[in-house]
Amino acid sequence: MKDLCTVILAAGQGTRMRSKLPKVVHPVAGLPMIAYVIEACRPLLAKRTVVITGHQADTVREALAGEAIEFVCQPQQHGTAHALLQAREALTGFDGDLLVVSGDTPLLTAQTLNGLLQAHRESHALATVLTAELPDPTGYGRVVRSATGGLLRIVEELEATPQERQIREINAGVYCFAAHALFEALQAIRPSAVKGELYLPDAIALLRDCDGGVQALPALDPDEIRGVNTRAELAEIHRLLWRKVAARLLAEGVTILDPERACIGPLVRIGSDSILYPNVTLEGQTVIGGGTTIYSGCRIRNSTIGSDTVLLDGCIIQESQIGDGCQVGPYAHLRPLARLQRHAKVGNFVEIKKSVVGEGSKVPHLSYIGDTTIGDRVNVGAGTITCNYDGFAKHQTVIENDVFVGSDVILVAPVSVGRGAIIAAGSTITENVPPDALAFGRARQVNKSGSAGAFRSKHRKG
Ligand code: UD1
Ligand code: MG
User: Fold this and answer.
1) What is the average per-residue pLDDT within 6-23?
2) How many domains does the chain have?
3) Does residue 453 fall inside a structural domain?
4) Are 273 and 152 in a shared domain?
5) Which residues pair with 383 in a beta bridge?
6) CATH number, domain with residue 79
7) CA gap 228, 183 in Å, rounded
8) Which of 37, 80, 86 to mutate to test the pocket of ligand 1 (most atoms within 8 A of CB)?
9) How many contiguous H segments (helices) and E segments (strands) does the chain have?
10) Counting beta carbons within 10 angstroms of the beta carbon of residue 454, is it exposed (0 to 12), middle (13 to 18) or buried (19 or more)?
Protein backbone atom coordinates (compact mmCIF):
# COMPACT_ATOMS: atom_id res chain seq x y z
CA MET A 1 0.00 0.00 0.00
CA LYS A 2 1.24 3.46 -0.88
CA ASP A 3 1.95 6.11 1.75
CA LEU A 4 -0.68 8.74 2.44
CA CYS A 5 -0.12 12.45 2.83
CA THR A 6 -2.90 14.94 3.63
CA VAL A 7 -2.90 18.52 2.40
CA ILE A 8 -5.40 20.99 3.87
CA LEU A 9 -6.01 24.21 1.94
CA ALA A 10 -6.37 27.09 4.36
CA ALA A 11 -4.64 30.12 2.86
CA GLY A 12 -7.68 31.99 1.61
CA GLN A 13 -9.04 35.07 3.32
CA GLY A 14 -12.65 34.03 2.99
CA THR A 15 -13.68 37.31 1.39
CA ARG A 16 -17.35 36.37 1.40
CA MET A 17 -17.34 36.10 5.21
CA ARG A 18 -16.56 39.87 5.41
CA SER A 19 -14.46 39.26 8.51
CA LYS A 20 -11.17 40.31 10.09
CA LEU A 21 -10.69 36.67 11.06
CA PRO A 22 -9.46 34.16 8.46
CA LYS A 23 -12.36 31.94 7.49
CA VAL A 24 -10.92 28.58 8.60
CA VAL A 25 -10.53 29.72 12.23
CA HIS A 26 -14.09 30.98 12.61
CA PRO A 27 -15.54 29.04 15.56
CA VAL A 28 -17.96 26.24 14.89
CA ALA A 29 -19.63 25.12 18.13
CA GLY A 30 -16.68 26.54 20.05
CA LEU A 31 -13.81 25.10 17.98
CA PRO A 32 -12.03 26.58 14.94
CA MET A 33 -13.59 25.31 11.73
CA ILE A 34 -10.33 23.77 10.51
CA ALA A 35 -9.96 21.73 13.72
CA TYR A 36 -12.90 19.60 12.57
CA VAL A 37 -11.16 18.86 9.27
CA ILE A 38 -8.00 17.82 11.12
CA GLU A 39 -10.11 15.61 13.40
CA ALA A 40 -11.80 13.93 10.42
CA CYS A 41 -8.41 13.24 8.78
CA ARG A 42 -6.78 11.88 11.94
CA PRO A 43 -8.00 8.24 11.78
CA LEU A 44 -6.58 7.88 8.25
CA LEU A 45 -3.13 7.94 9.85
CA ALA A 46 -1.45 9.93 7.10
CA LYS A 47 2.37 9.91 7.23
CA ARG A 48 2.33 13.70 6.96
CA THR A 49 -0.22 16.49 7.22
CA VAL A 50 0.54 19.73 5.42
CA VAL A 51 -1.58 22.83 5.95
CA ILE A 52 -1.32 25.60 3.35
CA THR A 53 -1.57 28.97 5.08
CA GLY A 54 -1.34 32.47 3.66
CA HIS A 55 -3.83 35.08 4.75
CA GLN A 56 -3.07 35.69 8.47
CA ALA A 57 -0.92 32.57 8.55
CA ASP A 58 0.03 33.13 12.20
CA THR A 59 -3.58 33.12 13.36
CA VAL A 60 -4.20 29.82 11.59
CA ARG A 61 -1.01 28.31 13.04
CA GLU A 62 -1.97 29.39 16.57
CA ALA A 63 -5.39 27.80 16.17
CA LEU A 64 -3.63 24.48 15.41
CA ALA A 65 -0.88 24.71 18.05
CA GLY A 66 0.13 21.31 19.39
CA GLU A 67 -0.89 19.37 16.27
CA ALA A 68 1.73 17.38 14.33
CA ILE A 69 1.39 19.51 11.23
CA GLU A 70 3.76 21.00 8.66
CA PHE A 71 2.89 24.47 7.43
CA VAL A 72 3.58 25.70 3.92
CA CYS A 73 2.98 29.33 3.03
CA GLN A 74 1.12 30.63 -0.01
CA PRO A 75 1.96 34.33 0.40
CA GLN A 76 -0.41 35.45 -2.32
CA GLN A 77 -3.59 33.57 -3.00
CA HIS A 78 -3.98 32.84 -6.68
CA GLY A 79 -6.41 29.96 -6.32
CA THR A 80 -6.69 26.41 -5.03
CA ALA A 81 -4.34 24.87 -7.63
CA HIS A 82 -1.77 27.57 -6.86
CA ALA A 83 -2.17 26.77 -3.15
CA LEU A 84 -1.44 23.10 -3.70
CA LEU A 85 1.55 23.90 -5.92
CA GLN A 86 3.20 25.57 -2.91
CA ALA A 87 3.50 22.12 -1.30
CA ARG A 88 5.44 20.70 -4.23
CA GLU A 89 8.84 21.40 -2.73
CA ALA A 90 7.90 20.08 0.72
CA LEU A 91 6.62 16.89 -0.93
CA THR A 92 9.64 16.31 -3.19
CA GLY A 93 10.19 12.58 -3.49
CA PHE A 94 6.73 11.71 -2.17
CA ASP A 95 5.09 9.29 -4.58
CA GLY A 96 2.07 8.04 -2.62
CA ASP A 97 -1.57 9.06 -2.34
CA LEU A 98 -2.37 12.66 -1.67
CA LEU A 99 -5.63 13.48 0.11
CA VAL A 100 -6.58 17.11 -0.48
CA VAL A 101 -9.28 18.76 1.64
CA SER A 102 -10.34 22.35 2.27
CA GLY A 103 -10.23 23.88 5.72
CA ASP A 104 -13.80 25.14 5.28
CA THR A 105 -15.75 21.85 5.27
CA PRO A 106 -16.19 21.09 8.98
CA LEU A 107 -18.87 18.40 8.67
CA LEU A 108 -16.70 15.90 6.79
CA THR A 109 -16.34 12.58 8.59
CA ALA A 110 -13.43 10.16 8.77
CA GLN A 111 -15.73 7.50 7.35
CA THR A 112 -16.33 9.46 4.16
CA LEU A 113 -12.65 10.33 3.76
CA ASN A 114 -11.70 6.72 4.30
CA GLY A 115 -14.28 5.59 1.71
CA LEU A 116 -12.79 8.00 -0.80
CA LEU A 117 -9.27 6.78 -0.12
CA GLN A 118 -10.25 3.11 -0.44
CA ALA A 119 -12.11 3.75 -3.72
CA HIS A 120 -9.06 5.60 -5.01
CA ARG A 121 -6.66 2.85 -4.05
CA GLU A 122 -8.81 0.09 -5.50
CA SER A 123 -9.32 1.84 -8.85
CA HIS A 124 -5.70 2.97 -9.39
CA ALA A 125 -7.15 6.20 -10.79
CA LEU A 126 -4.94 9.29 -10.94
CA ALA A 127 -7.66 11.33 -9.24
CA THR A 128 -10.80 10.49 -7.30
CA VAL A 129 -13.09 13.38 -6.44
CA LEU A 130 -15.86 13.38 -3.86
CA THR A 131 -19.16 14.73 -5.16
CA ALA A 132 -22.68 15.22 -3.85
CA GLU A 133 -26.17 15.86 -5.19
CA LEU A 134 -27.51 19.02 -3.58
CA PRO A 135 -31.05 20.35 -3.95
CA ASP A 136 -29.49 23.82 -4.21
CA PRO A 137 -26.02 23.63 -5.78
CA THR A 138 -25.50 27.42 -5.76
CA GLY A 139 -21.89 28.45 -5.21
CA TYR A 140 -20.25 25.07 -5.85
CA GLY A 141 -18.30 23.73 -8.81
CA ARG A 142 -20.54 21.52 -10.97
CA VAL A 143 -19.58 18.01 -12.06
CA VAL A 144 -19.87 17.61 -15.84
CA ARG A 145 -20.31 14.01 -17.00
CA SER A 146 -20.41 12.47 -20.47
CA ALA A 147 -23.54 10.94 -21.98
CA THR A 148 -22.38 7.59 -20.61
CA GLY A 149 -21.88 9.01 -17.12
CA GLY A 150 -18.08 9.27 -17.17
CA LEU A 151 -16.47 12.19 -15.34
CA LEU A 152 -15.42 14.88 -17.83
CA ARG A 153 -14.54 17.99 -15.89
CA ILE A 154 -15.59 20.36 -13.12
CA VAL A 155 -16.79 23.83 -13.93
CA GLU A 156 -16.96 26.64 -11.39
CA GLU A 157 -20.28 28.43 -11.05
CA LEU A 158 -18.89 31.72 -12.33
CA GLU A 159 -17.74 30.09 -15.53
CA ALA A 160 -20.61 27.68 -16.03
CA THR A 161 -23.15 28.00 -18.82
CA PRO A 162 -26.82 28.30 -17.82
CA GLN A 163 -27.24 24.58 -18.67
CA GLU A 164 -24.23 23.60 -16.55
CA ARG A 165 -25.66 25.58 -13.64
CA GLN A 166 -28.68 23.26 -13.72
CA ILE A 167 -26.40 20.35 -12.74
CA ARG A 168 -27.03 19.38 -9.14
CA GLU A 169 -23.98 17.16 -8.69
CA ILE A 170 -21.29 19.33 -7.14
CA ASN A 171 -17.59 19.10 -6.36
CA ALA A 172 -17.09 18.63 -2.61
CA GLY A 173 -13.53 19.98 -2.84
CA VAL A 174 -12.15 16.70 -1.46
CA TYR A 175 -9.80 14.71 -3.68
CA CYS A 176 -7.36 11.82 -3.72
CA PHE A 177 -4.53 12.20 -6.20
CA ALA A 178 -1.58 10.11 -7.33
CA ALA A 179 1.06 12.62 -6.21
CA HIS A 180 3.38 12.19 -9.20
CA ALA A 181 0.63 12.88 -11.74
CA LEU A 182 -0.92 15.73 -9.78
CA PHE A 183 2.03 18.10 -9.73
CA GLU A 184 2.53 17.62 -13.50
CA ALA A 185 -1.11 18.53 -14.07
CA LEU A 186 -1.01 21.55 -11.71
CA GLN A 187 1.80 23.02 -13.83
CA ALA A 188 -0.45 22.83 -16.87
CA ILE A 189 -3.44 24.65 -15.34
CA ARG A 190 -4.12 28.05 -16.87
CA PRO A 191 -5.75 31.03 -15.09
CA SER A 192 -9.53 30.96 -15.15
CA ALA A 193 -11.31 33.27 -17.57
CA VAL A 194 -13.40 35.17 -15.04
CA LYS A 195 -11.32 35.32 -11.83
CA GLY A 196 -7.84 34.76 -13.21
CA GLU A 197 -7.20 32.14 -10.51
CA LEU A 198 -5.66 28.70 -10.89
CA TYR A 199 -8.46 26.25 -10.14
CA LEU A 200 -7.58 22.88 -8.63
CA PRO A 201 -10.72 21.23 -10.11
CA ASP A 202 -9.21 21.90 -13.56
CA ALA A 203 -6.73 19.10 -12.77
CA ILE A 204 -9.59 16.64 -13.32
CA ALA A 205 -10.00 17.45 -17.04
CA LEU A 206 -6.21 17.38 -17.48
CA LEU A 207 -5.80 13.97 -15.83
CA ARG A 208 -8.87 12.46 -17.46
CA ASP A 209 -7.07 11.29 -20.59
CA CYS A 210 -3.90 10.12 -18.86
CA ASP A 211 -3.28 6.48 -18.10
CA GLY A 212 -5.37 5.63 -15.02
CA GLY A 213 -7.95 8.32 -15.59
CA VAL A 214 -10.22 10.01 -13.06
CA GLN A 215 -13.39 9.09 -11.20
CA ALA A 216 -16.07 10.68 -9.07
CA LEU A 217 -17.40 9.17 -5.86
CA PRO A 218 -20.79 10.47 -4.66
CA ALA A 219 -20.91 11.07 -0.90
CA LEU A 220 -23.46 9.02 1.02
CA ASP A 221 -24.55 12.02 3.11
CA PRO A 222 -24.63 15.18 0.98
CA ASP A 223 -24.86 17.41 4.07
CA GLU A 224 -21.38 16.34 5.11
CA ILE A 225 -19.60 18.09 2.32
CA ARG A 226 -21.09 21.54 2.85
CA GLY A 227 -18.48 24.25 2.64
CA VAL A 228 -18.60 27.51 4.55
CA ASN A 229 -18.09 30.57 2.40
CA THR A 230 -20.63 32.97 3.92
CA ARG A 231 -22.08 33.77 7.33
CA ALA A 232 -25.37 32.24 6.16
CA GLU A 233 -23.56 28.97 5.42
CA LEU A 234 -21.83 29.15 8.83
CA ALA A 235 -25.27 29.36 10.44
CA GLU A 236 -26.50 26.47 8.28
CA ILE A 237 -23.49 24.34 9.31
CA HIS A 238 -24.27 24.94 12.97
CA ARG A 239 -27.86 23.89 12.45
CA LEU A 240 -26.74 20.65 10.76
CA LEU A 241 -24.06 19.93 13.34
CA TRP A 242 -26.30 20.59 16.34
CA ARG A 243 -29.07 18.47 14.82
CA LYS A 244 -26.68 15.60 14.28
CA VAL A 245 -25.36 15.75 17.85
CA ALA A 246 -28.88 16.04 19.26
CA ALA A 247 -29.96 12.99 17.25
CA ARG A 248 -27.03 10.99 18.65
CA LEU A 249 -27.83 12.02 22.23
CA LEU A 250 -31.55 11.27 21.83
CA ALA A 251 -30.59 7.79 20.63
CA GLU A 252 -28.31 7.42 23.66
CA GLY A 253 -31.18 8.07 26.08
CA VAL A 254 -30.89 11.78 26.77
CA THR A 255 -34.10 13.85 26.88
CA ILE A 256 -33.76 16.99 24.79
CA LEU A 257 -37.04 18.84 25.01
CA ASP A 258 -36.44 20.91 21.87
CA PRO A 259 -33.69 19.44 19.67
CA GLU A 260 -33.92 22.46 17.35
CA ARG A 261 -32.78 24.63 20.24
CA ALA A 262 -29.99 22.46 21.64
CA CYS A 263 -26.55 23.87 20.79
CA ILE A 264 -24.32 20.91 21.63
CA GLY A 265 -20.80 20.45 20.26
CA PRO A 266 -19.69 17.14 18.75
CA LEU A 267 -17.26 16.22 21.55
CA VAL A 268 -19.89 16.48 24.30
CA ARG A 269 -20.90 13.29 26.14
CA ILE A 270 -24.06 12.99 28.27
CA GLY A 271 -25.29 10.04 30.33
CA SER A 272 -28.77 8.59 29.88
CA ASP A 273 -31.82 10.04 31.65
CA SER A 274 -30.34 13.50 31.70
CA ILE A 275 -32.82 16.21 30.66
CA LEU A 276 -31.99 19.30 28.63
CA TYR A 277 -34.44 22.19 28.51
CA PRO A 278 -34.46 24.45 25.41
CA ASN A 279 -31.58 26.84 24.70
CA VAL A 280 -28.73 25.03 26.41
CA THR A 281 -25.23 25.48 24.95
CA LEU A 282 -22.64 22.78 25.61
CA GLU A 283 -19.19 23.29 24.12
CA GLY A 284 -15.74 21.73 23.89
CA GLN A 285 -14.84 18.63 25.91
CA THR A 286 -17.84 18.65 28.21
CA VAL A 287 -18.94 15.49 29.99
CA ILE A 288 -22.26 15.22 31.85
CA GLY A 289 -23.37 12.25 33.92
CA GLY A 290 -26.73 10.49 33.88
CA GLY A 291 -29.93 11.80 35.44
CA THR A 292 -28.77 15.39 35.44
CA THR A 293 -31.18 18.21 34.54
CA ILE A 294 -30.01 21.35 32.78
CA TYR A 295 -32.50 24.19 32.52
CA SER A 296 -32.71 26.88 29.85
CA GLY A 297 -30.01 29.41 29.23
CA CYS A 298 -27.07 27.44 30.64
CA ARG A 299 -23.75 27.59 28.78
CA ILE A 300 -21.13 24.99 29.72
CA ARG A 301 -17.66 24.76 28.23
CA ASN A 302 -14.91 22.17 28.80
CA SER A 303 -16.42 21.05 32.09
CA THR A 304 -17.39 17.85 33.86
CA ILE A 305 -20.78 17.61 35.54
CA GLY A 306 -21.71 14.60 37.67
CA SER A 307 -24.88 12.54 37.80
CA ASP A 308 -28.22 13.56 39.34
CA THR A 309 -27.17 17.18 39.45
CA VAL A 310 -29.50 20.08 38.71
CA LEU A 311 -28.35 23.20 36.90
CA LEU A 312 -31.08 25.81 37.17
CA ASP A 313 -31.59 28.43 34.47
CA GLY A 314 -28.92 30.80 33.21
CA CYS A 315 -25.68 29.32 34.57
CA ILE A 316 -22.29 29.88 32.91
CA ILE A 317 -19.79 27.12 33.65
CA GLN A 318 -16.27 27.15 32.22
CA GLU A 319 -13.40 24.68 32.76
CA SER A 320 -15.00 23.51 36.01
CA GLN A 321 -16.02 20.31 37.76
CA ILE A 322 -19.33 19.67 39.45
CA GLY A 323 -19.90 16.47 41.40
CA ASP A 324 -22.92 14.19 41.75
CA GLY A 325 -26.14 15.42 43.32
CA CYS A 326 -25.21 19.10 43.25
CA GLN A 327 -27.56 22.02 42.69
CA VAL A 328 -26.35 25.12 40.87
CA GLY A 329 -28.07 28.35 39.91
CA PRO A 330 -30.14 30.01 38.75
CA TYR A 331 -27.66 32.53 37.32
CA ALA A 332 -24.47 31.15 38.84
CA HIS A 333 -21.09 31.79 37.23
CA LEU A 334 -18.47 29.08 37.64
CA ARG A 335 -15.22 30.41 36.23
CA PRO A 336 -12.18 28.23 35.42
CA LEU A 337 -11.12 25.73 38.07
CA ALA A 338 -14.24 25.86 40.18
CA ARG A 339 -14.79 22.45 41.79
CA LEU A 340 -18.00 21.49 43.55
CA GLN A 341 -17.90 18.23 45.46
CA ARG A 342 -20.89 15.90 45.86
CA HIS A 343 -24.16 17.42 47.04
CA ALA A 344 -22.76 20.96 47.09
CA LYS A 345 -25.18 23.79 46.44
CA VAL A 346 -24.35 27.04 44.71
CA GLY A 347 -27.27 29.41 44.37
CA ASN A 348 -28.31 32.51 42.49
CA PHE A 349 -25.88 35.28 41.58
CA VAL A 350 -22.87 33.44 42.95
CA GLU A 351 -19.48 33.63 41.22
CA ILE A 352 -16.86 30.99 41.96
CA LYS A 353 -13.30 30.98 40.62
CA LYS A 354 -10.39 28.60 41.26
CA SER A 355 -12.03 27.26 44.40
CA VAL A 356 -13.28 24.05 45.94
CA VAL A 357 -16.70 23.81 47.58
CA GLY A 358 -16.70 20.69 49.76
CA GLU A 359 -19.22 17.91 50.04
CA GLY A 360 -22.67 19.08 51.13
CA SER A 361 -21.53 22.69 51.48
CA LYS A 362 -23.72 25.61 50.44
CA VAL A 363 -23.08 29.02 48.95
CA PRO A 364 -26.71 29.84 48.24
CA HIS A 365 -26.95 33.57 47.46
CA LEU A 366 -25.07 36.59 46.06
CA SER A 367 -21.44 35.65 46.80
CA TYR A 368 -17.97 35.87 45.28
CA ILE A 369 -15.68 32.97 46.17
CA GLY A 370 -12.19 33.12 44.63
CA ASP A 371 -8.95 31.22 45.42
CA THR A 372 -10.73 29.49 48.27
CA THR A 373 -10.96 26.02 49.72
CA ILE A 374 -14.24 25.34 51.47
CA GLY A 375 -14.47 22.09 53.46
CA ASP A 376 -17.48 19.81 53.92
CA ARG A 377 -20.89 20.78 55.41
CA VAL A 378 -20.03 24.49 55.39
CA ASN A 379 -22.79 27.10 55.14
CA VAL A 380 -21.79 30.38 53.55
CA GLY A 381 -24.37 33.10 54.23
CA ALA A 382 -25.90 35.41 51.65
CA GLY A 383 -23.67 38.15 50.30
CA THR A 384 -20.40 36.70 51.58
CA ILE A 385 -17.32 37.81 49.65
CA THR A 386 -13.72 36.60 49.65
CA CYS A 387 -11.35 39.50 49.08
CA ASN A 388 -8.67 37.53 47.25
CA TYR A 389 -6.93 40.43 45.49
CA ASP A 390 -5.09 43.33 47.11
CA GLY A 391 -4.27 45.08 43.88
CA PHE A 392 -0.96 43.23 43.53
CA ALA A 393 -1.42 39.52 44.15
CA LYS A 394 -4.08 36.87 44.70
CA HIS A 395 -4.36 35.32 48.18
CA GLN A 396 -5.97 32.16 49.53
CA THR A 397 -8.91 31.67 51.87
CA VAL A 398 -9.41 28.39 53.71
CA ILE A 399 -12.71 27.51 55.39
CA GLU A 400 -12.57 24.17 57.19
CA ASN A 401 -15.30 21.57 57.69
CA ASP A 402 -18.55 22.43 59.52
CA VAL A 403 -17.99 26.19 59.57
CA PHE A 404 -21.00 28.51 59.60
CA VAL A 405 -20.39 31.84 57.91
CA GLY A 406 -23.16 34.38 58.60
CA SER A 407 -24.59 36.64 55.94
CA ASP A 408 -22.65 39.51 54.40
CA VAL A 409 -19.24 38.47 55.68
CA ILE A 410 -16.05 39.81 54.14
CA LEU A 411 -13.09 37.43 54.31
CA VAL A 412 -9.88 39.35 53.64
CA ALA A 413 -7.34 36.83 52.29
CA PRO A 414 -4.97 35.34 53.18
CA VAL A 415 -7.14 34.07 55.98
CA SER A 416 -8.36 30.79 57.40
CA VAL A 417 -11.37 29.74 59.44
CA GLY A 418 -10.90 26.67 61.65
CA ARG A 419 -13.17 23.65 61.77
CA GLY A 420 -16.57 24.20 63.39
CA ALA A 421 -16.15 27.98 63.83
CA ILE A 422 -19.04 30.43 63.50
CA ILE A 423 -18.68 33.88 61.97
CA ALA A 424 -21.26 36.50 62.91
CA ALA A 425 -23.24 38.15 60.11
CA GLY A 426 -21.80 41.40 58.79
CA SER A 427 -18.23 40.62 59.95
CA THR A 428 -15.07 41.69 58.21
CA ILE A 429 -12.58 38.91 58.95
CA THR A 430 -8.94 39.93 58.66
CA GLU A 431 -7.43 37.48 61.13
CA ASN A 432 -7.49 33.69 61.23
CA VAL A 433 -10.41 32.22 63.20
CA PRO A 434 -9.47 29.26 65.45
CA PRO A 435 -11.51 26.04 65.37
CA ASP A 436 -14.86 26.19 67.19
CA ALA A 437 -14.50 29.95 67.87
CA LEU A 438 -17.33 32.44 67.47
CA ALA A 439 -15.92 35.40 65.54
CA PHE A 440 -17.38 38.91 65.50
CA GLY A 441 -15.72 41.39 63.19
CA ARG A 442 -18.09 44.34 63.37
CA ALA A 443 -18.83 47.43 65.45
CA ARG A 444 -21.18 46.91 68.39
CA GLN A 445 -24.69 48.28 67.85
CA VAL A 446 -25.90 51.27 69.89
CA ASN A 447 -29.65 51.77 70.58
CA LYS A 448 -30.64 55.27 71.86
CA SER A 449 -34.08 54.80 73.35
CA GLY A 450 -36.76 57.28 72.28
CA SER A 451 -34.37 59.23 70.06
CA ALA A 452 -36.27 58.47 66.85
CA GLY A 453 -38.93 61.11 67.59
CA ALA A 454 -36.31 63.80 68.31
CA PHE A 455 -34.52 62.89 65.07
CA ARG A 456 -37.71 63.24 63.03
CA SER A 457 -38.78 66.58 64.44
CA LYS A 458 -35.27 68.01 63.90
CA HIS A 459 -35.37 67.01 60.24
CA ARG A 460 -38.96 68.24 59.72
CA LYS A 461 -38.04 71.71 61.01
CA GLY A 462 -34.98 71.74 58.73
C1 UD1 B 1 -14.03 25.23 -4.05
C2 UD1 B 1 -13.97 24.55 -5.43
C3 UD1 B 1 -15.39 24.18 -5.86
C4 UD1 B 1 -16.04 23.29 -4.81
C5 UD1 B 1 -15.99 23.95 -3.42
C6 UD1 B 1 -16.41 22.95 -2.36
C7 UD1 B 1 -12.08 25.63 -6.54
C8 UD1 B 1 -11.66 26.60 -7.57
N9 UD1 B 1 -13.40 25.47 -6.37
O10 UD1 B 1 -14.78 26.43 -4.22
O11 UD1 B 1 -15.35 23.48 -7.09
O12 UD1 B 1 -17.38 23.03 -5.18
O13 UD1 B 1 -14.64 24.36 -3.10
O14 UD1 B 1 -16.49 23.54 -1.10
O15 UD1 B 1 -11.26 24.98 -5.93
N16 UD1 B 1 -7.59 28.51 -0.67
C17 UD1 B 1 -6.22 28.63 -0.58
N18 UD1 B 1 -5.57 29.46 -1.46
C19 UD1 B 1 -6.22 30.11 -2.44
C20 UD1 B 1 -7.61 29.97 -2.53
C21 UD1 B 1 -8.27 29.15 -1.64
O22 UD1 B 1 -5.59 28.04 0.29
O23 UD1 B 1 -5.54 30.82 -3.21
C24 UD1 B 1 -8.27 27.63 0.29
C25 UD1 B 1 -9.32 28.36 1.12
O26 UD1 B 1 -8.75 28.86 2.31
C27 UD1 B 1 -10.36 27.28 1.37
C28 UD1 B 1 -10.19 26.33 0.20
O29 UD1 B 1 -8.95 26.63 -0.41
O30 UD1 B 1 -10.12 26.58 2.58
C31 UD1 B 1 -11.31 26.45 -0.82
O32 UD1 B 1 -11.37 27.79 -1.28
P33 UD1 B 1 -12.74 28.55 -1.45
O34 UD1 B 1 -12.47 29.94 -1.86
O35 UD1 B 1 -13.59 28.32 -0.28
O36 UD1 B 1 -13.32 27.76 -2.71
P37 UD1 B 1 -14.85 27.59 -3.11
O38 UD1 B 1 -15.31 28.81 -3.81
O39 UD1 B 1 -15.62 27.14 -1.94
MG1 MG C 1 -15.21 27.05 0.04
Assistant:
1) 96
2) 2
3) no
4) no
5) none
6) 3.90.550.10
7) 27
8) 80
9) 9, 41
10) exposed
The residue from 180, 365, 395, 459 that is catalytic is: 365
Using an 8 Å Cβ cutoff, are 241 and 106 in contact?
A: yes
Query: What contacts 24+ positions apart, CB below 8 Å, involve 117-120?
Result: 117/4, 117/44, 117/176, 119/176, 119/215, 119/217, 120/176
- Residue 381 falls within a domain, yes or no? yes
The per-residue DSSP string of 300-318 comes to: EES-EE-SS-EE-TT-EEE
Residues 376 and 321 in one domain: yes
With H, G, I as helix, E, B as strand and everything else as coil, classify residue 326.
coil
CATH number of the domain at 392, please: 2.160.10.10
Q: Please say if the pLDDT value at position 162 is more than 80.
A: yes
Confidence class for position 89, pLDDT limits 50, 70, 90:
very high
Regarding whether 319 and 175 lie in a shared domain, the answer is: no
The greatest distance separating any two alpha carbons of the chain, rounded to the nearest whole angstrom, comes to 109
Angle at 178 between CA 176 and CA 181, to 5 degrees: 125
Residue-level pLDDT at 306? 98
pLDDT at 30: 86
Place 1 in a pLDDT band, splitting at 50, 70 and 90. confident
Residues 55 and 174 in one domain: yes
Whole domain around residue 276: which residue ranges? 243-439
| Residue ranges lining ligand 1, Cβ < 6 Å | 9-12, 24, 52, 54, 74, 77-80, 82-83, 102-105, 140-141, 154, 156, 170-173, 199-201, 227, 229
Residue 375 is given by DSSP the state -
Task: Measure Cα distances from 327 to 108, 168, 265 in Å.
Answer: 38, 52, 23
Q: Is residue 186 part of a domain?
A: yes
Q: How many CB atoms lie within 10 A of CB 8?
A: 26
Same domain, 220 and 262: no
Tell me whether strands 151-155 and 142-145 are parallel, antiparallel or unpaired: antiparallel
CA distances from 439 to 84, 378, 403, 416 (A): 72, 15, 11, 12
Clarify whether residues 414 and 311 are in a common domain.
yes
Residues 221 and 250 in one domain: no
> Going by CA atoms, what residue is nearest to atom 13 of ligand 1?
173
| Count of all residues that appear for the chain in the document | 462
- One domain for residues 71 and 196: yes
Q: How far apart are CA 237 and CA 220, in angstroms?
A: 17
105 in a structural domain: yes
Query: One-letter amino acid identity for 97?
Result: D
